[in-house]
Design brief:
The protein is an alpha+beta fold. It folds into 2 domains: 75 residues, no CATH class; 192 residues, Roll (C8orf32 fold). It has 12 helices and 6 strands. The strands form 2 sheets. A 4-stranded antiparallel β-sheet has the order 3-4-5-6. A hairpin with a 6-residue loop joins strand 3 and strand 4.
Amino acid sequence: MTDNELRAIVSLLDDEDDEVLKMIEDKIFSLGEQIIPFLEDEWSRQFNPVVQRRIEQLLHTINYNFVKKRLLDWSINEENDLLKGMWIIATYQYPDLQLDELRKQIDQLYYDAWSEMKTDLIALDQIKLLNSIFFNRFRFRANTANIKAVSNSMLNNILESKKSNPIGLCIVYMFIAQRLNLPVYGVNLPNIFILTYKTDKVQFYINVFNKGLTFIKNDIDNYILQLGINPRPIFYEPCSNLDIIKRVLRNLIAAYEDIGEKVKVEEIQHLLDNLPQDNL
């Protein structure tokens, strides 16, 4: 379609007939992601607030549908790439965010950490050194002042502000650790997400939200006992990247609930429900 034909279609967005509007919206949706730059340009040209508002709604719906499709595709074909999963979630709020930009930022953190790491240390000392790099050099910290903030679930915000909730900090920490060939994985502990350092001979746990505090299985046993729930293997063993993404989505739902964004709560819940089910 030519630009003039597209503009003629967009001009009909101020029609009050619901059937006409539905027909116009369906036509625009059928054009797919390629229509986004044109709609953004048309929004800036418009002096009709009704048309502007409806263009905004169309852009959001188009982006949301692509987020939903990408996230499902990721869960089926690319679950090993947690960074891409986190990027997809962030594009819900930041549609123009580029995956390559996030990769470059994580790469830089890895290179900076690699320059200070030592390979002849025992496991616990490796983590102590990584803690020093992560918290002292990089200055990552717990977002205790606003633990329910939406920004805690957006990787670009985490990398910019250097603060997040437990799972946000764990994800960035794990990106760096695994690039350094350290066997560090996520653990779905109730109420707080943690990491585990696990090999065939060594296993201990890391509370990144508490400046990388390390602890052992007995500490988790006591924690579970205090919560009054039955121990489960998932409280002790590495979880999948899909588990991590689902927990991030649950945190995002809670964040939007906290600020009264009911539509966004429903949309994120739908993203979560659309993913393959697990045993959580």
